[in-house]
Amino acid sequence: MSLDALRKLRARTEEVLTMELARATQALIGMEQRHDAVDAQIQAEASAYRIEAERGLVIEAMLEWQGRLDSYQAALRQARGAIDRLTEEWNRARVRLIEATQERKALDRFIERQREAQRAELRRREQQVTDEAAGRCFVIRPS
Question: N or C, where is the chain less crowded by C-beta within 10 Å?
Answer without folding.
Answer: C
